[in-house]
Amino acid sequence: MKWLCMILILKIAPLFINGGIETGIQIEKSLQKKVINLTKQLLHCRDLIHVRKNRCRVTGDILVKEIHLVIRRLVPNSDSTLKKVSAIRSLYTDCNYVLQTGRYVSEVYPIWLKVGYRFIHIYCDMESGSHITNKTGWKTFQQRKNGKINFNRGWDDYVNGFGNPNEDYWAGLENTYLLTRQNEIGFSYGYRTTRPNLRIDLEGWDGFHAYVEYKPFSINPEENYSISGLGVRFGTAFHPDYRGSILPNDFSTFDHTSETSFFISNCPGPHNSGWWFFGCGYSNLNGIYQRPTDKMSKSDGIYWRHWTLINPNNTALKLASMKIQYYR
């Protein structure tokens, strides 16, 4: 009987073993088939995405060309308009990026604010080189050219901005602050926002020109947009033996001053403009625009303390501008 059982076991066992092996092979083949099908589906999706991406790019190029054609038909001398359309499409965040695309003309361009998530129009100075960076492409946030715009305004106007970027212009304290937050550099430990350099250009009615650059420059919106950092200075619009003409003070207007601010009569103050005043201030580039025959006025006009030290004629200022640029 025992021998009979053993014989039966020896005959039946291979059937179970073979069945198990066949089942395992079937599962493996089924999985391989599924993997192959999934791979084909993924490749198909990739091809679809590539095709749609190309279609979108082609459609975008066609639309831009159509816009250019419409502008050429409707707007005479439309080259500058076409440049601005291209700039909007490219979302330029810096004048230097505009420069890298072959646009070398100093004019107004739409600049995209990364933090504010919107455009503002800024005059890009593509001609003035930098002592610090040895490059051009400056974002101008303050400009005096012809006296057409009244700078005797209140706090809200100075925060939000006013004027014409092609002429007399103030970009606004908030916009200027956002412009100083455009450059984010990646490091091994994370990201850090670098501060830009500041350049101030001055030109008198006699043609005398001087400039000064500060490395770096920043303002603090939580403390009345005070200048919170002015580093090393370079240029010709200062005297090495004297303090700088622009100091880290709170910004003040006739309707908004900080509790710690005080102003001395017959000195630059908020009675006719907004500026970083304190005591008897050393500058006020937002003062009253003066005539060709005027001398620089400390109490009312566009004022720069060191001007009397570097320009023997002490003529009133015909041009003044403030602009920023990133080191990299």
TrEMBL record:
Segments forming a coiled coil: none
Residues covered by the Fibrinogen C-terminal domain: 86-328
Keywords tagged on the record: Disulfide bond, Signal
Transmembrane stretches, start-end: none
Signal peptide (UniProt feature, chain positions): 1-19
Pfam families: Fibrinogen_C
PANTHER family xref list: FIBRINOGEN C-TERMINAL DOMAIN-CONTAINING PROTEIN, FIBRINOGEN/TENASCIN/ANGIOPOEITIN
Protein name: Self-incompatibility-linked fibrinogen-like protein-B
Taxonomic source organism: Ciona intestinalis (Transparent sea squirt)
